[in-house]
Amino acid sequence: MQTSTPDHTSAKQAMTPQLVVVSIFWLGLLLVASWVKPDYSHMSQYISEINATGTTAAGVLGWVGFVPFAIVVLSFLVSARSRVRVEGISALGYALLFFYPFAYLGAALAPCDAGCPIDGSASQTIHNWIGILSYLGFAAGTLLLAFTPRAHWVLRIVFVLLAIIIGLGFFIMPTENLEPVRGAIQRYLEIAQLAVFWLLLGITRKHSSNE
User: Fold this and answer.
1) Is the pLDDT of residue 192 over 60?
2) Which end of the chain is more exposed for a tag (fewer CB within 10 A), N or C?
3) d(Cα 163, Cα 148) in Å, to the nearest integer?
4) Residue 95: pLDDT over 50
5) Residue 87 DSSP class
6) pLDDT above 70 for 3
7) Is residue 95 part of a domain?
8) What percent of the chain shows pLDDT beyond 70?
9) In a domain, 76, yes or no
10) Rounded Cα–Cα distance for residues 192 and 162 (Å)
11) 3-state DSSP call for residue 120?
C-alpha cells in the first residue's frame, strides 16, 4: 500500500503556493480590467480585448498585466516539472501546457484589434494563430496527461473531460450567435485550464520502494 512520503508532501507544499498566486493573479487581472476599463464586458469580450489596440490603456495592460502573468505561470511550470511524474507521452503533454503562458505573451506582443475580429490587421492575424495553437495545444497536452504513469483512473477521466471541454469550447466560442456570451465561455475555458494546473498536484512524484 502506498503512503505519502515527506518528498511527496513537500512537492505538493512547494507547488500549492505557486498555484494560489497564479489563480489570484488571473482573477486580479480581470478585476483590474473592470476598474481601468469601465466599458469592458466580461460577458461578451475576450480576455485579450483588455489589451486591444486603440482601447483604454492599450499596451500598458499588456505589459503590466499579461506579461507578468505569463512569467508567473511559466515559472510555475518550470519549477513543477521535476515534481510531477510525467514520462514519455505524458511528458509531451506537460510540455504542451506551456502554450498557456505563450498565449498571454502573444496577447501582449501581438494585440488583437478592437472587437477581436476573425479578419483584421497583421497583428490580429498573428494573434488569431497564437490563439489556435495555444488552445488546441493545451487541450492536446491535457489529453496526454491522462497517460501519466500510475495516475488514478478518476484523474485520467478528469484530464480527458477537461481536454474535451477546452478543445470544443475553443471552436464554440467564436460562433456568431454566441457572440453576446463569448467572454463568459472563455472564462469557463480559462477556469478549466487553471484546473489542469491544480490537478498536477495529483501526479506529483512519490519516492518510495512501493511505487
Assistant:
1) yes
2) N
3) 14
4) yes
5) -
6) no
7) yes
8) 93
9) yes
10) 6
11) coil
As for how many domains the chain has, the answer is: 1
pLDDT digits (tens, 9 = 90+) for 98-140: 999 999 999 999 999 999 998 899 999 999 999 999 999 999 9
Domain hosting residue 114, numbered range = 6-203
SS3 assignment for the chain: CCCCCHHHHHHHHHHHHHHHHHHHHHHHHHHHHHHHCCCCCCCCCCHHHHHCCCCCCCCHHHHHHHHHHHHHHHHHHHHHHHHECCCCHHHHHHHHCCHHHHHHHHHHHCCCCCCCCCCCCHHHHHHHHHHHHHHHHHHHHHHHHCCCCCCCHHHHHHHHHHHHHHHHHHHHCCCHHHHHHHHHHHHHHHHHHHHHHHHHHHHECCCCCCC
Query: Is there a domain that residue 37 lies in?
Result: yes
User: What is the three-class DSSP state of 84?
Assistant: strand
CA dist., res. 16 & res. 13, Å (int): 5
Contact 18, 35 (CB under 8 A): no
The C-alpha angle with vertex 19 and arms to 85 and 10, in degrees rounded to 5, equals 50
Q: Which residue matches cell numbers 500549492?
A: 16
Give the integer Cα–Cα distance in Å for 37 and 49. Answer: 10
